[in-house]
## 1
Amino acid sequence: MTRKKTLKKIASLSVLLLIAGCQRPQLPTVQRVLPVQVYKVQPGDISSYITLTGSIEAQNDAVVYSKLSEKLISLNVKTGDRVKAGQLLGTQYHEAALQGKSAAAAGLKSAQIQLQTASDDYNRMKNLYDKKAISRQQYDQSKSRYDIAQATFEQAQASLRQATVQVENAILRAPFDGTVATVNYEVNQTVSMGQPVLKIINAQTVKAKLNVPSTDISKISIGEKVTAVFPALPDTVFSGIVYRMDESIDPHTRSLLAEVRLSNAGNLLRSGLFGEFRVETEHRTETIVVSEMTLLTRTEINTDALGIQTEKPEYFVYIVNSGKAVRRLVTPGIISGGLVELTSGVLIGDSIIVAGQNAVKDNDSLRVVNRTEK
């Protein structure tokens, strides 16, 4: 081999070695593994609600009015007192009524004596007439005296009842068990007829009249459960039911009036309190419930033969199966309070990704870092 050829080979080999030295080494492929949190599906409950606002008032309240234009001579209760049905609350001056009642009672006693005398005489004359011992005229006269005495007695009874009512009109009584809410007069003040003297309320149960929008009327029915919260009592939730609903819609507000009743066993609620009422419209048990944040969505656009496009939302979640992400189309049901019901697409026992799902793609390798709730 000539020197020239040898030098050429050495040069070529040097170039090849130089090129080989400039190439980067091939790195091994690293598979992406994403950390996620999952919730293992268990059966749960969920409800949907309609939220309404309004003020409450006592279920029973009544104003005790004056039935006479007389001075108030006694007052036996004050604001806040508990009273029983029929309890004496106060009295107006009624001396003339008492005298009238005494006169009526005396008149009734006299009429009763006269009736008894006329009755005895009539029975005796009737017996004689039946034996034909007296004339028809004598019999008719005794019967007339008896009939007059009977009418007089009945009139005396009516007079006594009327006099008794006059006395009772001066006595103020509680219409039902309850609490004295207001007292408008003091002793020795003259109260005109028809004026409100006291107000009695029964607050063991309170009610609220709520306007239900026409769009929600079909969702509410009598007997539905209700929960209520009040800003004045932020740490307490009160429960009740829909008690009554009007039959017709108010044409001005386009709403239906519904009456809600709440238990007030602790006597915490007061008339006039404003609150928020949640009426349960639907309740599901033993269903799949997850956090609303778990649910992912995308919009599919469909174009028909005329080129008209319509949007169709698709809802899905990711579950973990054998360490891989699996995309599942789901159907949402009730959505309430940050939770959503899934009526199809997942099963009890599935592990749904509830944290990290936004970064996951179908068939990604996953590493469950911990388990969490819904």
Note: The chain has a mean pLDDT of 87.
## 2
Amino acid sequence: MSGGPPSFGVLLTNLGSPTAPTARAVRAYLREFLADRRVVDLPRLRWWLIRNLVVLPLRPRRSARLYRAIWTSEGSPLTVTTARIGAALGPTLAGAGIEAPVRVAMRYGSPSIAVELRRLVAAGCHRVLVLPLYPQYSTTTTASTVDAVDAASGRLGRAVETRTVESYHDHPAYIGALAASVAERWDEGVPAGRLVASFHGLPQRIADAGDPYPDQCAATTRALVRSLGLAPGRWHMAYQSRFGREPWLRPALADRLSSWGRRGVHGVDVVCPGFAADCLETLEEVAIGGRRLFESAGGSGFRYIAALNDRPDHVAALAAVISDHTRDWRSPPAGAAE
């Protein structure tokens, strides 16, 4: 190493989480989350009334109970696991010959994007690669992160070049890690009759407006299926986490599980390729709620396959994504002596 400042830094981001499984903490988190126009694009006055008179007074207490079901002694699974990924990413990059400081930030809550971007710049990084842990691009997630990064960089008072990884939904290393996680689970016992790839849902009108998210979810699923060598009929794709009453992407995971349960289906594995780290939507909604829904309807043999979390092959995949997106930053200037 030259001993000079790093050529670039990495800002690893995720959605965020309440600081505690309490109604007060959930309310504070939802207040910030639901104020984002990328998340809810209803007319502002109408949404202000719904948010402040209906959602924030009622939803936090229920959500806090759900968070308590998955909370750990270390804190929120999403924030704890994201921090672990970030801690492992630096040494993994160094092992590949890439020296770059890595900071972890959350789009909503703490640690904030503004604070962690400032720390990278203070460390001498004039270029920052932003890697949102959203494999599939959506205006509601990745674009919102870009908004926050742009706003934070504009307040720094010094020049910093930022670049965002918009998606890595079909990156070979990411697909390889996904396939390995499924295969390892199957090695523990007989593979289930059906594999379901479940992704976070999205209002249908956002997809109709051109958001590439559903196409990228389908591409991820096809790549995973090819890697596993699954025959037609062995795999399915669905969406979860619907919020509100308007139409969302279909088919809904809950509808499929209910239908299969009523038909007495045995053997369903659910994997959630859109979630880099386990969180409320995977651990409570799918692993607990999905199982309950399926079995209460009459099904049996339900298994949830954990998110990639801080698996070494996942961290290596993220390092490969970073390498691909910073190749020009790491190349010597044209005409420089070799």
Note: The first strand starts at residue 9 and ends at 14.
